[in-house]
Amino acid sequence: MRKAVKFGGSSLADAAQIRKVAAIIRSDEARKYVIPSAPGKRFKTDTKVTDMLIRCFEIQQRDLDEGLAYFSQIEERFNSILKDLELDYSLEEEYRVIRSNMEEGLSRDYLVSRGEYLSGKILSNLLDMPFVDPADYIHFNSNGIFEEQKTSAAFREIAGMESFVMPGFYGATDTGRIRTFSRGGSDITGSIVAGGMQVDVYENWTDVSGFLMVDPRIVENPYPIKEITYSELRELSYMGAQVFHEEAIFPARAAGIPINIRNTNRPEDEGSWVCTDDKISKDHLFITGLAGKTDFMSLSFEKDVGSDRLPFGRKVLQMFEEAKVMVEHVPSSIGTMTVVVDAAEISGKEESILRRIRREIDPYSITVERNLALVAVVGLKLRGVVGITSDMLRVLADEGINVRMVVQGIKEISLIIGVSEEDYEKAIRLLYDFALKSNQSIVSE
Ligand code: ASP
Description:
Layout: E1 3-7, H1 15-26, E2 31-36, H2 49-62, H3 64-85, H4 92-103, H5 108-127, H6 148-156, E3 164-165, E4 170-172, E5 178-180, H7 186-196, E6 201-206, E7 227-229, H8 230-238, H9 249-254, E8 259-263, E9 272-275, E10 289-302, H10 309-322, E11 327-329, E12 336-342, H11 343-346, H12 350-360, E13 365-378, H13 388-398, E14 405-408, E15 414-420, H14 424-443
Parallel strand pairs: 1-2, 1-6, 2-3, 6-8, 7-9
Antiparallel strand pairs: 4-5, 8-9, 10-12, 10-13, 11-12, 13-15, 14-15
Helix pairs in contact: 1-3, 2-3, 2-5, 3-4, 6-7
Bound molecules: aspartic acid (ASP).
């Protein structure tokens, strides 16, 4: 058995946390490949090292000396970790290289990735495991897009390594320019390492004992999810359930490697398991979880399409694509095209998109509706259950909640219900109760 183990920022925030990490790694011989994040917050008002580095870059853009002075605070953070760990190891040479790169006008991604780099250096020393720099193995193209095939090929060069520490969050282009993933991207590195080293399990250690069925800020003490499939998780994380980076699902999933989300502060908890659809256990829940987001808006366009019907939809979507606005859903009917987008995403661009649509598509009506919230009810086993959608809608109707939109993909793994923002939390609570009852009645059948 071999495992890739990724530790998030809160697991590496200070020496006490890092000791827990070392104990976790040492307690299981299978934990061979370690992927650390940069140190996160030690307390609520603290600043993550990655955020300090972003700030450092911004300062140095204005004034190099001030940037270098700010960098000393980051050095202090790492030095205090080294001191508290009582490690006979110094990062002075590393700091010197980073400072001289700052003087030479380094890229933002380079500086921002140094949190993971230094964190990796500390762990490699503490655990006595080789340090492998992802800049040599995780490939990006010149536009900053991850290159899967080149990366897989590069991992073949290290396939024989017994163990290593590889910092999360970044890689490099062919010319050696450092590029980072989006925020929280060390999860992606962990997944790539898991796939590249063909391990049996990818453990993702964080500060919660896995996924909860619903947001605990809305429902008190929700049930934990013991097992979830990749496709269910993707639906939930896409709809706002955080814990695990959405894009981190792909590499492990492609390699068929199960993911185990664990809590560094409660290593005795089993956490949540993420597996492929064909590997679910007999206890797999009927409704696995619920997630939701507020602040969506819908834009509907009506046109007497006639022979224009074919290009109508494409043209509307093209306007959004060209304005770089992600379209979330397209619930449409003949002659009416509705586009649901995240209000933050379209902010500042709405007027110009509408102007173009008026000019180039000329719909006879445009309706914009705001304050829309979406709730996703997710479960692989929802597929083919007659009447379940109407049961859910009935629960909402009985409480006077108006359903403004319903989207059910043909795979029937999730039902997305659009309600007004003022009904959002109530809808989540009602549907959570419904989920618990349904899960219970399925188990007892
Ligand atoms: N340190 C990076 C961030 O704060 C990446 C990560 O922690 O996964 O986003």
